[in-house]
Design brief:
The protein is an all-alpha fold. 84% of the residues lie in helices and 0% in strands.
Length: 95
Amino acid sequence: MDLRMLVPIFGILLVMIPVAGLTFGLTLRLAVKPFVETLARALRESGHVTNGPDLSEQILLLREEVEMLNQEVRHLKSVQDFDRTLLSGQGDVTG
């Protein structure tokens, strides 16, 4: 194989690769865009996208739940410390 055979092949590829890339890109863009718009509209209409007071209400409830969990953890730590003190024998009352 000499270079004279490769020149037309590379010339064709030099033109065909960008054309194929543009064709694929435009086809993909035109095919996917309506699908994404339809999906976004369906999600908006179904109410899965929350805005406004519902979201702030959920945040408030989550904060209250986190505070309750923190209080429970503090209580469990104090009970655990009490149990540890009893089991170590430091809490014995001698008379």
